[in-house]
Amino acid sequence: MANDLTKLTIAEASELLNDGEISSRELTEAVLASATHQNGDLNAYLEIFDDALASADEADARRRAGERAPLLGIPLAIKDNILIEGKRATSASKILENYIATYDATAIQKLKAAGAVFIGRTNMDEFAMGGSTENSAFGTTKNPHDTTRVPGGSSGGSAAAVAAHMALGALGSDTGGSIRQPASFCGVVGLKPTYGAISRSGLMAMASSLDQIGPFTRTVADAEILFNVLKGNDPLDSTSAPDSVWSDKKIEKKKLRIGVPEDFAFGKGVDKDVVENFKKSMEALAQEGHEIVPIKLAHITHSLAVYYILMPAEASTNLARFDGVRFGALKEGATLFDDYAQTRGAGFGREVRRRIMLGAYVLSSGYYDAYYHKATSVRALIEEDFKQAFDLSADGVDIIATPTSPTPAFKIGEKSADPLQMYLADIFTVPANLAGIPGISVPSGTAQRDGRDLPLGIQFLAPHFREDLLFVAGRSLESVAGRNA
Ligand code: GLN
């Protein structure tokens, strides 16, 4: 039994806990054993917390006192860029190696109130910049399905932890795909909520107009459980949406019109196994009664270019605070300027420095109009494309489907020398962040590589605040994915 506990979904564990069949202590002990046992191999966690069992005991006490809540006593993993008061939070960067969070992120406060147990903080690309977790200052995380391959990124540690049963669920952050792409590579569910759905307070900012916290889980139902706990207005985040967006009556739709932007989804560079799996998945969804319709998104092919201008611009601004004075380990130089140069030169890794330089460049007075300003205009066109596609009064669709990633998990080292190759891997995920719409990646089968089955995922996109439609589509895909694996 002890081993099997780690394989429970959140919903199953919650039921067993409510029925008194298991305690959170037992469950947490099993998950801790699994995490400790595998972490040497996988490096999913940067730290496994020593107070998880104490939290589990607290949750058990709350349950004994009559409390019932879906996350009470459930062991979760937290990405290392989300603050937990009193715990180290490094964003997998040397510059924050010894930083201890002074407050809880709002998402963490909510999880604590819900009684969740934190197993540890997970590895990631430094400051969430990357798609493979190879940019961590503390070593690469390995894909549990094939340890010679990357888990995806930037939330690779969270994805690997959930896939390898080192947590029942996890939090990640997604600026351009960092939840959905690793979820796809590791064979788990990953949700990037609508921009403004979950508070960003206490999430280390990468690109503020694109960042969202979201869950990793093994099932769509579990993603929904976590999302419902995490969402909601927060006065500490001025971009957080008012609660009224959730209360207008959503029509329970079971059969969806699913749009497929074919030119985009089957474009150049998309692996043929990915295309085949995608087509089969759509056929299976059609058999379930959904309607699959080809659509066009006129400006979608510009998404990557737009993203890789806006994201570094915002990141370069956000990362200015790591100067050794306000934040970050100071390295003293001969002058004040030298302090900054030494601190940032030693503290930031190559990819972070590359993006800060790119960002400073596109924002500089001579180039602002040509790059940053132009990119914001094209971003508006991409948003408009989605609006039109989702306009049901004009023959639009309920949701859109694409592969999550153009390839299955690649080899460690395969793309790390060529940043452009790495950026191309984000082709399907960045549009949702640019438009602020929600996206989910759901496992859709596998592709064989070197005799191993590597997970593939389908991404669904919905209009703002229509996560409910993603859950409908996701559950439907889950019910058929086994059949087309
Ligand atoms: N892979 C993308 C990037 O490198 C996405 C990162 C993210 O979502 N945090 O920017």
Describe it.
There is one protein chain. The protein is α/β, with parallel strands linked by helices and 485 residues long. It has a single domain (1-305, 403-485), classed as Alpha-Beta Complex (Amidase signature (AS) enzymes), CATH 3.90.1300. It has 18 helices and eleven strands. The chain has helices at residues 2-5, 10-18, 24-42, 52-64, 106-114, 156-163, 180-186, 220-230, 244-247, 262-265, 272-287, 303-318, 336-347, 350-363, 369-389, 419-424, 430-435, 467-484; strands at residues 45-48, 75-79, 117-122, 169-174, 189-192, 212-217, 257-261, 291-295, 399-403, 439-449, 452-461. An eleven-stranded mixed sheet has the order 1-3-2-4-6-5-10-11-9-7-8, with helices on both faces. Helix 3 (24-42) packs antiparallel against helix 4 (52-64), helix 8 (220-230) runs antiparallel to helix 18 (467-484) and helix 12 crosses helix 14 (350-363). The protein is globular. The two termini are 28 Å apart. The model has no long low-confidence stretch (mean pLDDT 96). Glutamine is lined by residues 128-131, 154, 174-178, 206, 311, 426.
